[in-house]
Each structure stands twice: as C-alpha cells, then as structure tokens.
Amino acid sequence: MNKLIAAAVLAATLSACGIAQAERAVPIPAAKLDVPKAPGLQTAIFAGGCFWGLEAVFERVKGVKAVTAGYAGGTRATANYDAVSTEQTGHAEAVKLVYDPQQVSYGTLLRVYFSIAHNPTELNRQGPDTGPSYRSAIFPQSAQQKAVAAAYIAQLGQARVFPKPIVTRLESGAFFPAEAYHQNFFDRNPRHPYIVMWDKPKVAAFKAGFPTLAR
C-alpha cells in the first residue's frame, strides 16, 4: 500500500484510539569535532525516515536557509515516489539543507539530527514506515563533513547516549528533489493525520529542546 495512504490510515486509527506519539529531544552532547566556519553557504544531506518530518524540523533551525525533500543514494531514473516506494531503488528519503556556517555549524545540525529529527537506532524504519528508503544515513558533502560525522557517531556510541547501537551509515550518492507535492508538506498540510501524529510532536520537541536554536 502507498505510504501516503497506509500511514494516514494508521495515524487516524491511533488517533481515534486516543494514542499519541510522545516525542522529546534526546539530551546528547555537542560534537567535539566540527567543521570550521567558512564564508558562503554550505550543503548538508540527511536521511532518517519520512522526509516530511526531517524537513519540518530543519526548516525551523536558525541559519538553515533552505530545505528540499528528495531522494539520495540511487539513480536519477528511479528518483520518483512510486519507484522509491517499492524499496528496490536504493534511494533513501532525505533532505538537502543549505545553511550558513556562520550561524549554525555542521556539528550542530548533526546534534539536531541525532537528538530529535529521527531515531538513529532503528534499522530501515522510522515510526510507522519500514524499508531501506527510511534508513538512517548521512551523505557527507565534503571530507570534513565525513570526518565530523564519523567522529560524532563514535562519540555518541562511547557515551552510550542511546540504549541501542547507532545504525546510521555514512553514504555517498547524488540527491534528487522529490515531487512538488512533497515540498513544505508539513506547513501546507497541518491537519494531515500523519503530520499530526508523527511530525508535529517532533517540531514541538525541537522547539522545547533547542529554544535558542529554533526560529
């Protein structure tokens, strides 16, 4: 079943039963290693479950100038929702961030990514969504980003921040924007059952857990 339909049915059912998704920011330390500040805008790409929630959280981070929902890790020919939903294309639902490193560092973006944007201990799933397109993956855009991401994963693992091992992978591959109807989905569809059940709690938790970072 198409995720748009299946997730909406699940969320509506849970809501009708009075069950709500509880979200809070996981208290994790800042990255010890970070990408040095540099002039000009930079790009970061993160995958971790449905891109609607990732987009909604990162759009509210000060210093993030633009967020695009899309597909990373596969080919252009199959970078479309119907194909990716078959879980056979190798893509991950992902977001591309354009950010100002003078205002927010790559390490800080990683902290948001690991603490609230998704659960990095779930393998090939997030919440109600299952399959490799919902995997936890970082697509570094430079050698520095790759080094910082790897160091942070190791740092969090050594600190035993999470009760289970982090399964986030560092991957390479092109990013392809998703269809127009997926862009800004949270803001354009505030009453959508999936948004109400799974993504609004994430945004609220981000604002509560990172008050000085939230717009």
From TrEMBL:
Q: Where is the signal peptide?
A: 1-22
Q: State the reactions this protein catalyses.
A: [thioredoxin]-disulfide + L-methionine + H2O = L-methionine (S)-S-oxide + [thioredoxin]-dithiol; L-methionyl-[protein] + [thioredoxin]-disulfide + H2O = L-methionyl-(S)-S-oxide-[protein] + [thioredoxin]-dithiol
Residue span(s) of domain Peptide methionine sulphoxide reductase MsrA: 43-194
The regions listed as transmembrane in this protein's record are none
Q: Name one GO molecular function term.
A: peptide-methionine (S)-S-oxide reductase activity
Active-site residues? 50
Keywords, alphabetical:
Oxidoreductase, Signal
Q: What is its EC number?
A: 1.8.4.11
Q: Which InterPro entries match?
A: Met_Sox_Rdtase_MsrA_dom (IPR002569), Met_Sox_Rdtase_MsrA_sf (IPR036509)
Q: Which NCBIfam families match?
A: msrA
What function does the entry list?
Has an important function as a repair enzyme for proteins that have been inactivated by oxidation. Catalyzes the reversible oxidation-reduction of methionine sulfoxide in proteins to methionine.
Q: Which family does it belong to?
A: Belongs to the MsrA Met sulfoxide reductase family.
Protein name per UniProt: Peptide methionine sulfoxide reductase MsrA
Q: Could you tell me which species this protein originates from?
A: Sphingomonas hylomeconis
